[in-house]
Amino acid sequence: MGFLRLMLLFERHNNSASFLFILHLAALVVLATNCSRSKQVEEEKVHQPSDLEIIRETGILKVVIDYNSTNYFVYRGKPMGYQYELVMKLCDDMDVRPEITVSNNMAETFEGLKSGRFDLVAKNLTVTRPRQMEVAFTRPLKQTRQVLVQRKPSADTPDSLFLNTTLDLAGKQIHVQQNTTYYRRLLNLSEEIGHPIRVVEDSVNGVEQLVSMVARGEIDYTVCDENVALLNQNYYPNLDVSLKISFPQHIAWAVRKESDDLKEFLDRWIVQFKETKEYREIYHLYFESQRTTGRFGSPFHSIAGGKISEYDPLVKELAKKHNWDWRLISS
């Protein structure tokens, strides 16, 4: 209610009682208006720091990486891996320290991101619509396709087990890592071919463990990204990874949906860094170089050989008591 309206009321009720009433009412209006404005000013002054600001203020970027022969592993006591080196370069450019958690559990990964335990998921995440409902993806790091991993026909593997087309998947049992896009892709493929595919979600073994199980004949089929499959084919020459079961898909990192400024920073960084010689060298080292096969066959490779140093048993025992990653301590 404005002062003009109050004056009109005063003229209609020109007596002392009315005047006192209107004067009191005017005071309440002024007081309420000032309080409202003060509250608005105070709210404007209160600034909630963004995720990127918190990371820079604390000097720590909390990252979760998966443990395999490409993303993160330890070789001769030194942490290595495609995603590991990207994260280290990112933190160097941000002038922060990485706090790395190693986890192959996808459910734990996404829950940890949403709860604030992690700031960044630095894994080979396939960008899908269901996942976009939960997290925000960065610009793609690369593209890949999903392929079927199976054994080549041999004396130990009859031709009847070898699959040539996606139609041959009908009725077959395929093991995939739990909570991955491979499971959803096989369900969709089952609808497309009009026949059921028996998909077994493995909650214990990761992608590369399942690949090795196929190579050893413990299971017949699994699914993984093409670049990882081609890399593992160097380790296991008896594998065939030629059957594609998806179109090319984007692979990216993920942050919380509300981390707009962090995502914007990461998008710029990824686009710029992918154009550098350093990025090309990192990619070549882990996906194209013949030295990769040699590292994997070494007893000092933390996945294939599992040996980092002669003190491994002692480190493992101490790390287990404190729920630490013994590989990070030994390295």
From TrEMBL:
Protein origin, superkingdom: Bacteria
Residue ranges that the Swiss-Prot or TrEMBL entry lists as coiled coil: none
InterPro entries, A to Z: Solute-binding_3/MltF_N
Domain Solute-binding protein family 3/N-terminal: 60-290
Pfam families in the cross-refs: SBP_bac_3
Gene3D superfamilies per the UniProt record, alphabetical: Periplasmic binding protein-like II (3.40.190.10)
SUPFAM superfamilies, A to Z: Periplasmic binding protein-like II (SSF53850)
UniProtKB keywords: Signal
Record bears the keyword Coiled coil: no
Protein name, UniProt field: Transporter substrate-binding domain-containing protein
Organism whose genome encodes this protein: Mariniphaga anaerophila
